Amino acid sequence: MLEIECPSVTPEAVLKASGHVDKFTDLMVKDDKTGTCFRADHLLRDYCNDKLEKDHLTISAEQASELKNVLALLEDLSCQELGLKIKEYGITAPHTKNPLSDPYPFNLMFQTSIGPSGQSPGYMRPETAQGIFVNFRDLYYYNGKKLPFAAAQVGQAFRNEISPRQGPLRVREFTLAEIEHFVDPENKSHPKFSNVAELEFLMFPREAQLSGQSAKKICLGEAVAKGTINNETLGYFIGRVYLFLTKIGIDKNRLRFRQHLANEMAHYAADCWDAEIEASYGWIECVGIADRSAYDLQAHSEKSGVALVAEEKFAEPKEVEQLVITPVKKDLGIAFKGDHKKVVESLEAMKEQEAMAMKATLESKGEVEFYVCTLGKNVTIKKNMVSISKERTKVHQRVFTPSVIEPSFGIGRIMYCLSEHSFSTRPGKAGDEQLGLLSFSPLVAPMKCMVFPLVQNQQFEEGAKVISESLTSIRISHKIDMTGTSIGKRYARSDELGVPFAITVDSDTSVTIRERDSKDQVRVSLKEAASVLSSVAEGKMTWQDVWASFPHHSSE
Amino acid sequence: MLEIECPSVTPEAVLKASGHVDKFTDLMVKDDKTGTCFRADHLLRDYCNDKLEKDHLTISAEQASELKNVLALLEDLSCQELGLKIKEYGITAPHTKNPLSDPYPFNLMFQTSIGPSGQSPGYMRPETAQGIFVNFRDLYYYNGKKLPFAAAQVGQAFRNEISPRQGPLRVREFTLAEIEHFVDPENKSHPKFSNVAELEFLMFPREAQLSGQSAKKICLGEAVAKGTINNETLGYFIGRVYLFLTKIGIDKNRLRFRQHLANEMAHYAADCWDAEIEASYGWIECVGIADRSAYDLQAHSEKSGVALVAEEKFAEPKEVEQLVITPVKKDLGIAFKGDHKKVVESLEAMKEQEAMAMKATLESKGEVEFYVCTLGKNVTIKKNMVSISKERTKVHQRVFTPSVIEPSFGIGRIMYCLSEHSFSTRPGKAGDEQLGLLSFSPLVAPMKCMVFPLVQNQQFEEGAKVISESLTSIRISHKIDMTGTSIGKRYARSDELGVPFAITVDSDTSVTIRERDSKDQVRVSLKEAASVLSSVAEGKMTWQDVWASFPHHSSE
């Protein structure tokens, strides 16, 4: 997988081509008097839910069914329909009860201006994917012009939410990790699919949602074989996302893969699944895995006039009837000088219909006006500048726009859910107290180890420093706590912070290593302590191995 | 060191407090007819340099000395002075030769608007440091309220440069890595200074610059002892920056530490040094290491009304005359309800002069108007709400604003210089060709290893896949090249990309490992190949160790 880092500030042309400038909007209403802004769909949803919950005894069955219907269709309502519903139900601004404006689209991108002139609008990227698409030609070249391949980007994305809420779940700036896997649309098999085909986990296909069933365990291989999941590559990434999430510590019983309904999916998407994790806010969309077909590359290709395509070389040449566009570079060079390369690229990028129309005009009138989008203007093409024909020729390759399969990870949401799934409490020694426990696996715990001198004395503190230096040299994150706080309290504190291990220096020559979840302890020599800790923190040994290899003491 | 990640989109209040909204500007002139923008100081500098170079035979000694003087003072010229010089010299717009506007300040921050109301201006952060300062109170708490400690942030910074130039050296979006090390202003010693005190490297102190000398090798310990470098902690970070840069591969003969002249430094800074690296564009400022004193924390404290201070507990209480401000929380709570906490904090943050003035007014008039900046409005404080006095009391602690020492790394600039310092050419086999060589050390090379089947056959390709899987499992970045290109060309290609090692699969049971710089080769069994590679790539073994341990073949 190729890694790439693109700028956050993005020129308008890129986000115009991707559709974000025109369509990345939420419908907003304003409090007529205070000017406070609200998301129109949220107000309507809250109204319907409230009514169904609080007034269920007073409303008729028909009214209830109408409200449920509105909730089901919420995402499909047009601006006008939303406005009519808000009027019909007499919904007013929360708190003030003032009347509301009509809904209108509010673009969620942060706008800015690039350069000193004030003439170049730009936006903070709303996702990291577009940077990969506009760099497709270079990435394809770096990959030796071979498909399939993927490029990935981890970085900040920016959405000027109307109402940020739910802690880290809906924020205006967040970390996205996106993979764009480019694949031949005629062959979406995946060579490593067999590695994940036997996985079984909770899936919630479209049909199950529409028929009121719940998510159920399905074998990934079967889901692909039956066509529930559109293709092998999409299935492969769904499997890898499942493995990733469960490996970092997400509870597999509170993780499901939900397929988008037809009305949720963009018209061009072939199939789309969300990894949803259950937490206190409900089922939270944390990873989207979509087959976006050739849409993105085609959109940028059309607006930029730069072909974003791949080639398949044939073993044997094939004879086909083909559109042949041959710009006459010499004549174009004389006519357009420095601009001629852009004219050539635009001529070559013409689709069949446009090219044949140009051919006809050139034959009848001898010249034609031609819009070159990379120049932003019309140029006059004369008959001598280009030859266009349809010929039966031997072709040695197929040229096509790759499909893209996109797993997109909301890192903050995953971290939030992981924290909830990892948190529990257990009784303290006093009996009536409950102590917090954050069971981060050593793999994900930001801090792998605490180092505690048992009591404040020079000898133990020296030992702690020696161990800390060894841990630093082998890059194990840790912290020394030299405070005189009782060892029990220091353990409780580090359990609550999710630190999986503690090394307590309680002699000249040896130390105690304590594991957080079992509270079990082993005795290891001072010299070996850092290397044992690194083995168990990096997964080369399990805690059971350590337990079996050293003198130990159970907490039970 | 605590790591922190703050948002890029920053509310105006933060950057108003830091001074960026008012002062983070460059002086700009516009072409009167086309509107094209230029940096005023760049035009004046180019004019002077041009004149000195091209017309040195025709201008008088006085004129030459005047031009040199302008160049020396360039950074100190006011907006008006710059404008007068441009007029005096008759400087016109490059290319068009049109007249220029008067210079005016252009703020280099990208501006945007936060939220849907349009009422909350924000800016893309021009540096990562401010996020650390505004979070000082929490960071200090996380560090157990102990000084010294440091917080670090790696992330994007944004500057809307008037004219980006010189490849990656002056761009509008770039990666900064900043450390803010907070220290007691009365004790800037550093416990680990002795680890770096004996380093000797090129320094260019202020006096040497002013007296026309060049940079020379100075021992770090002596530079601190003589006061050339202001204090031990600043010296410690200078030493660590030197070790870092040379370890990643910067040539120590093209690296110098240049002290800021008095006119380059902010008025509050105690001392400031730049790590400058020589490359084809000249000496490039890549890391700044500054003692910014207490300026930043005080600025945010004053504007926010939140005390950003540290405490030193005394072993024995001391008797001093002290300002005592005691807000009466009960009465304030009744008067200001939900706001009362902010009022309390603002009262407690008053300086002596303000507090004594309030005391006088309360005594004479019984109440006083008081501006609470965190509320953005005046409140009326009555006599019963606060008691203010100066008392001789025993104090148990000293409260002070920490000084901050800031090493700030321009990652793109460092990477650019590293690429230049690592690049060389050497003759190919043909004799008349020169092959590129990028000598990235295994530590920094993004790709550690290439895996080559010697020729295209199934057996070697299988072996290559086995090795690739082993390398993946131990997280060694690598790439297989299965093309039929000759092995010599594949080596040349990977040398040019800076890949330090290649594994060539040329038998069923063993492989050749080749080192890039020496071109030397060793034979290793197929089974051992990945682990040998990982040892040498991660620095556990040197290439000399590998060479001595296996059958080998020199390229000579």
Automatic annotation (TrEMBL), chains A, B:
CDD domains: GlyRS-like_core, GlyRS_anticodon. Its EC number is 6.1.1.14. GO terms for molecular function: ligase activity. Keywords: Aminoacyl-tRNA synthetase, ATP-binding, Ligase, Nucleotide-binding, Protein biosynthesis. The keyword Nuclease does not apply. SUPFAM superfamilies: Class II aaRS ABD-related (SSF52954), Class II aaRS and biotin synthetases (SSF55681). InterPro entries: aa-tRNA-synt_IIb (IPR002314), aa-tRNA-synth_II (IPR006195), aa-tRNA-synth_II/BPL/LPL (IPR045864), Anticodon-bd (IPR004154), Anticodon-bd_dom_sf (IPR036621), Gly-tRNA_synthase/POLG2 (IPR027031), GlyRS-like_core (IPR033731), tRNA-synt_gly (IPR002315). Residues 86-427 form the Aminoacyl-transfer RNA synthetases class-II family profile domain. Pfam families: HGTP_anticodon (PF03129), tRNA-synt_2b (PF00587). The keyword Aminoacyl-tRNA synthetase applies. Belongs to the class-II aminoacyl-tRNA synthetase family. This is glycine--tRNA ligase. It comes from Camelina sativa.
